[in-house]
Fold this sequence. Notes:
Chain A is of the alpha/beta class. Chain A has twelve helices and 13 strands.
Amino acid sequence: MKKILLILIVLLLSGCSNYNEMSDLGTITGLGIDYKDGNFYISASMINFKDNKESVISLKSHNTSINTALNDLSLISSKNIYLEHLMVVVISEEVYKNHLKNVIDFFKNNSSTPLSFNVIISDNAEKIIDLTSPLDTTNSTYLINTIKLNNEYEGFASVVTFDELLDRYYSEGISLILTKVKTSDSFKSEEKNSSLIEITSLATLNNKLQINYLNKYESIGYNLLMNKIETTLLKIDCDDSYYTIELKWNKSKIKVKDKDKIDINITSFGTVNEFNCDITDDKKINSYVLNTTKNKINSIINSTINKSKSTNTDFLGIGKYLYAYQYKYFNKVNDIFENELLKDINFNINIDLQIDRINNVGDNKEGSDYNKQ
Amino acid sequence: MITINNKIDSNNFVSLIFSLTKSCFFGYGISSILFSSYTSSIISFIIGFIISILISLMFLKVYNYSNNLTILEKLKEKLNPFFYYIIFIIVILYALFMAMLVYYIINYFILSQYLTDTSFFIVLLILVISAIYLVFQNYETLTRFSFLTTFITAVMLIINIVGVSTHFEFNNILPIYNYDIKGILYGSFIFISLFTSPLLLMSFIKRSDITDKENLNKKFIISIIISGLTLIVIITVILGALGITLSTIFSYPEYIVLKKIKFNFIESIENISFLLWVYYAFNLCSCALMFVKYSLKNEFKIKSNKTLNIITLFLMLVIFIIPNFLLNNNPSISSFIYKISPIIYFSVFFVIIFLMFIFSLFNAEK
Lengths: 373, 366
């Protein structure tokens, strides 16, 4: 009896009961979702394993629900739609504004999709998914890399994964924010659909379903405050010239002091890359760079906060901080917080900036104090 | 051939505690506590844990008092036959119900989360055949298996906690106290019920069958404390990594949080690291069935191994297969059963332990 049981276990553990051939799977890496005339228009980047060469084909379908539209893709391609390797979902502004719930419901309840895919928006999702990058085999990889590299080097784009979007969508005291992309106008190619993308801005959505766009510096400010920035490069004007400083190891802490008082502490480390200002004294340069950079960061953060206040959009999640630290108060004002109380919050910004040695600065042959040491 | 002279080590015996006390939390316990207490779930866990220690000490006293008899045999001595047989039937049903529910939850999870295209019979068969194989052995095998899995699950748990803790955000666990006392207390009750009730299933092993009894009390208490603290760490890490919103919108936050673990190129680790919950469930089911098997054997003096195995096999098939038909098609029934399960578990467990505790006190005074 025991031997029979053991044999049965071994047979069952072989895992061959419901196997799928790779060639039967329609592995989708990118999805575009548009909405027109009561229909969801789905564009999908599907990996094509034909002839053992990896390439991507673009498929389209439309239907009244996302699920049925995806099923239609399955019928067109004669493959089982496989979303386990989904990397990016591009949604149109219309979907972002009015049909985000459908998108969230579909992916939340679909156990085979990962939670870590990126979500971005565009005027035309289909166009973004259809483009073929001249530099990458799969456009999904190209899209992701572009956003990640931008975030890493410029700090302008923001990587928003689906679980983060989900958290923002269902949580109280925080609004939605996504990176917006478009096809680049500067790149020309004779190949059909061959194009590059450009990151245009971060798009926020408030509870009145209004989309607002953050400019470059507001976006950097957002990323700084949310600890989503690795490095950023600031160009700071001085008289008729300028200097550039690279900020790295940025860290911000948001502390709730009172119901209407928030402290923001930012620590950063700056390296001056170019210095063309008319100052030669080492000590003066250091204090000048320190002060002007601090002022610049301060103005960036302030512009981000002002954007949040003026658009009545709590994309910084100040309500969420109040929920954590002033729970009783926030529960009372939750319904009116974003529209009425957010603009009355006072922010106190403290910046702790350290400047690395300043190389090859003007006529200074001896180098900075740091070098002398 | 089953021998009643099985001797086991106290380490093997207490290793069962690690699995039994945690197994009911998967799929139901953690999510329902999060749902009732929200960010105050940590307080619920702590209150529940403190009370659970006291109840576990009560159980230990009762267990020591029974010494060379099982708790049921000791009850038989003390109660009149009519009441005893009522309690006996209730306890057998309680063990079967607990095994049924824990297996159903694990089976349902596997089918809904990663083997969505597989027939539930295939999944069920793998689990059931392994359980049958184990239950056909004696309880020494069960405790040895449990001892082994304690180390495997401990390693998995450490990897999981370390992997998830990189996503931990302190703000996510705030406010620790959300002023909803009713919710917090209900969460504590669920904790106490799910944490302590399965201990009754260990009671079919007589104290006299443990070789190094002198260390038993100390090891028992240490195991309870470690197991409870582990659960507090688990809930804190889940809340800290996912936040209360994500923790409450998913049915299996303890699985979803594992999706956050990424070690460089290794992805989808959650499908392996989740196995620790399968081990816990497997240990509880095997222990519950072993409990039923030995209780029937002792009660009806069944000497034939074959008869005993056939009865156990029949009971196992009933509890594993029936719920898949009954609960799968009736979401309202399954959610009702989920909701009342902590009440059923705790009431049966507490009545028996309390009765025995009174007897033990009365006896001590004499």
